[in-house]
Amino acid sequence: MSASAPQSSRAEFLPQWVVAATLALATALPVQAQEGALSQLYAARPPAGSSFVRVVNPTAEPLLVQVAGGPAQRIGPAAPATSYAIVAGGRPFTVQVGGKKAGTLEVRPDSFGTYVLRRDGAGHAFTVIDDTGDVPDALKAELRFYNLVPGCAKAQLQIAPAGTPVVRDVAPMAAGARSVNPVQAQLAAACGSAASPAQALPALQAGDHLSLFMTGTADKPVLTMQPARTDTFKR
Questions:
Q1: Would you tell me which of 14, 32, 60, 121 could form a disulfide with 18, CB atoms 3.0–4.6 Å apart?
Q2: What is the largest distance, in Å, between two alpha-carbon atoms of the chain?
C-alpha cells in the first residue's frame, strides 16, 4: 500500500508485529523521532471497513480537486497527487474538480486506491489503480512507481546512470512497489531506451512511502516524486 493508515488509539488493539516494530524503531531513533512514532501508535484509528482514496492528475494543467468532502488540493506537474482521503468502504462519495462534481465513486472496504484523472468530453473520468498490497516492512521505506503513460507497455524505475532496475515491467495505468533501506540514490523513469532526467531520492526514513509518477510520453518520460500522505482521521 502507498500510505499508512493511522494506528489504533489503544496499543492493545494493535497486531503484535506493529507494536514490536514501533517499539524497536523507537529505541533506535532520537527523542523527536520517538515522539513521532508514539504519536502514530496512539493516534485515532478509522472504523473497520474504512478505505483510502486519492486522485492523481497526470496532465500539465493544475486542477483543484476535492475528495469526499476533504480539503481542496491543487494538483498538477509539481505535485500530481492529493493525500489519501479516508472514506467508508461500500458507500458512495463524490469527487469534485474545479469546484464541480466530477463523479460519484464507491470502493470496497479496507482498500487503498489511486484514481487517475482524465478528460472525458466536457467532464472528467477516472482510471483506478489498486494500491492495496502486502503489509510493508516498517523498518524500510517503500517506493511505489506508477506508469501513467498509455503508450509505454513496460515502464521501469532505475538507478541512474547505471540503469539498474529498481521496479521493472510496469504496465500502463499500473504500479509496482519496492521496499528499500533509506539510501542516497539517483533515479530515473524509463520506457525502452528513453529515460527521464535523473532525480535524487529525498531523505527517507523507515516507514516512509514515496510515490514516483512517470508521465510525459513513451519517447520522453518525466519522473515526479511525491511523499504519500493520509488525511488525519477525526472522530
A1: 14
A2: 55
Tell me if 40 is assigned to some domain: no
pLDDT: is 197 or 11 the higher one?
197
Examine the domain organization and report whether 170 and 104 are in the same domain: no
Concatenated DSSP letters of 86-124: EEETTS-EEEEETTEEEEEE---SS-EEEEEEEEETTEE
For residue 81, what pLDDT is reported?
A: 98
Backbone angles phi, psi at 39, to 5 degrees: -65, -35
In this structure, are 146 and 219 located in the same domain?
A: yes
Give the pLDDT mean for 141-159: 97
Burial of 115 (0-12, 13-18, 19+ CB in 10 A): buried
| 228 burial level (CB within 10 Å; 0-12, 13-18, 19+) | buried
Backbone angles phi, psi at 167, to 5 degrees: -135, 130
Task: Judge if 147 and 207 occupy the same domain.
Answer: yes
Q: What is the pLDDT of residues 75-86, one digit of tens each?
A: 999 999 999 999
Q: Answer whether residue 125 shows pLDDT above 80.
A: yes
Sheet holding 174-180, edge to edge: 174-180, 141-147, 209-217, 220-227
